[in-house]
Amino acid sequence: NQSKNVEGNAKDHQLEPFRVENEGTKMTTNQGLRVSNDEDSLKAGVRGPTIMEDFHLREKITHFDHERIPERVVHARGFAAHGEFELYESMSEYTKAKFLQDPKKKTPVFVRFSTVVGSLGSMDTARDVRGFATKFYTDEGNYDLVGNNIPVFFIQDAIKFPDLIHAVKPEPHNDMPQAASAHDTFWDFVANNQEIAHMIMWHMSDRTIPRSFRMMEGFGVHTFRFVNDKGRSRFVKFHWKPVLGVHSLVWDEAQIIAGKDPDFQRRDLWEAIEIGDYPEFELGIQILEPEDEFKFDFDILDATKLWPEELVPVKKIGKMTLNRNVDNVFAETEQVAFHPGNVVPGIDFTNDPLLQGRLFSYLDTQLIRLGGPNFAEIPINRPICPVHNNQRNGFSRQTINLGRVSYHKNSLANNTPATSTAKEGGYVHYEEKVEGRITRARSKSFDDHFSQARLFWNSMSPPEKQHIIDAFSFEVGKVKSKSVRQQVVDMFVHVDKVMATTVADNVGVNRPNGEQSKVTASSPALSQANTVKLPYT
Ligand code: HEM
């Protein structure tokens, strides 16, 4: 039934030879030997010890013992689906990327939605950023748009990412709390790394408790480059807009659902696709001409800033439809390897220092997560176009590369893989001019932490503001360190005084002007002393 929906989907055809049907077959060992008994181990006598000779028992148990692979170091819990991307109009003016040229062309995609913090078995409706990673299987190779559902990020430079994640994940001494930001190290990191302010405003908003994966936006976050066939480059930001609109849960719903159905969002996605109510997302782009690079009071290389849509409108250029569930979650959802460095000609990077670090991190982590250098041969990761190079060997190599010459430039073979010119589809990096002294420094505007955080707050309706205050009060109220609670309140007064003062009263610390709070409990959210009337009710 499902395969009807994906007729002509090149990736689905490619996956076909790897599908194994077990129903109605005879059981064998991995060597193909038929098994006569799968219930009793081989013993010396009916009540005797099990004997070493039992190769079937050993193989079965050994394989089981090795079933787990490490979960992703972040975004461990995720759910994915297959689909297709179609373009509305040719983007040839902006980019030479082949899958963005012809509106008739359908490009197979695989999308994995995720939460960032929780482990593999955590609940779906945690207050958390959602990952939104898309693999486009293009005729020129795989292009990965590895985004989130929030348009900005926590930090500006990749060098802080391990610190961020160490602070956000459960605390190391007791491994709590699972999948939640309501704890001391998280808020201590916030107060001491104030570039996070804008992201935290989004984090405390309803955006981090989406109603459904089908009802949330996606963002590439970084500034990327489009390059057209004349070599002209423009800056670009990517957006996914859900056709169903953006919808969130309210906090109480999220909490109740977490208890009743921790699989709520994966079930929602799975069932929508099963009944043919296919999730759709439109791809939007914001384009900036190179001469406008310095037109704003923020740096376009700063991932904690967005490009306001009223200044740089979003143009919708195509639509993605998710129309097929996976056959096997481990084989596909777990083994898929996204990497922001997987690009195609016409799409290039910028010097965003967060992006630059990501370009290193993903391949590095996948080398261990997926057991060595051959994970690109796993069916879900294979491009639909041919792969030829001189790499060889390594754990679990699948291909049998023929010939004895596996090095470039040689005289023994005349048919080793040849490189391609740009005209022939060879990837040529954009020749950006770079100058400056080697330094550990950043643009001045990177230190403006609050302008866009205020912009966000001011764009909220009264109920949304109330939800943000409630979220701050709950999350910061769980922090045991009074000093950290105070630091957070003192920090967010730079966003809004009423907001910070109300939160101060709710979490039992001094108001930002030093005035004593009306509530004196040492940790009011823990002691349920949430008595202050909020201004937006
Ligand atoms: C997953 C690192 C920033 C989106 C991951 C993984 C690592 C990582 C190591 C696990 C990958 C795997 O095991 O396959 C980093 C670093 C960052 C960073 C070092 C900053 C320096 C971001 C940003 C975004 C993002 C800014 C969004 C724009 C994602 C997503 C996944 C992911 C969606 C899950 C992909 C999947 O579903 O398999 N990241 N990340 N990350 N990251 Fe990042």
Task: Characterize the structure shown.
Its EC number is 1.11.1.6. Decomposes hydrogen peroxide into water and oxygen; serves to protect cells from the toxic effects of hydrogen peroxide. Keywords: Heme, Hydrogen peroxide, Iron, Metal-binding, Oxidoreductase, Peroxidase. This is Catalase. The N terminus is likely disordered. Strands 1, 2, 3, 4, 5, 6, 7, 8, 9 and 10 form a 10-stranded antiparallel sheet that branches. This protein starts with a helix and ends in a 30-residue tail after the last helix. The chain has 537 residues and is of the alpha+beta class. Protoporphyrin IX containing FE binds next to strand 2, strand 3, strand 4 and helix 10.
CA-CA gap between termini: 50 Å
Low-confidence stretches: 1-5, 520-533
Radius of gyration of CA atoms, rounded to a whole number: 26 Å
Helix content: 10-25%
**By helix and strand content, what is the structural category?**
alpha+beta
How many H/I helical runs? 14
Task: Report on the biggest sheet.
Answer: 10 strands, antiparallel
Strand content: 5-15%
Give the total of beta strands.
Answer: 10
